[in-house]
């Protein structure tokens, strides 16, 4: 099981995560990236069976505010 986390307080709205993983990320009304389908808050989290494109998004975030964990261990 994977856990995707986004620290929205660090996001600089560059759009890389949305370009590389539009299935999971979008800009919220406040102009900050958010994980689709997750309530807006400073830290968002989503459990995933399949990490899908989230690894790419985490790797492309210039401020490293996207984290991916597998079984509690940080992957990215
Ligand atoms: S890649 Fe990182 S800094 Fe850029 S919009 Fe996504 S979360 Fe924000």
TrEMBL record:
Keyword Metal-binding: yes
Record bears the keyword Transport: yes
GO molecular function: electron transfer activity; iron ion binding; iron-sulfur cluster binding; oxidoreductase activity
SUPFAM superfamilies: 4Fe-4S ferredoxins (SSF54862)
4Fe-4S ferredoxin-type domain: residues covered: 2-30
Pfam hit, one: Fer4_15
Keyword set, alphabetical order: Electron transport, Iron, Iron-sulfur, Metal-binding, Transport
PROSITE patterns attached to this UniProt entry: 4FE4S_FER_1 (PS00198), 4FE4S_FER_2 (PS51379)
Essential cofactor(s): [4Fe-4S] cluster
PANTHER family xrefs: FERREDOXIN
Role this protein plays: Ferredoxins are iron-sulfur proteins that transfer electrons in a wide variety of metabolic reactions.
Protein name: Ferredoxin
Organism name: Methanothermobacter defluvii
């Amino acid at each position: 099981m994977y856990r995707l986390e986004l620290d929205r307080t660090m996001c600089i709205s560059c759009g890389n995560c949305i370009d590389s993983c539009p299935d999971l990320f979008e800009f919220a009304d406040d102009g900050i990236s958010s994980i689709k389908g997750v309530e807006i808050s400073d830290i968002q989290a989503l459990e995933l069976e399949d990490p899908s494109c989230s690894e790419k998004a985490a790797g492309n975030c210039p401020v490293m505010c996207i984290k991916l964990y597998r079984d509690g261990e940080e992957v990215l």
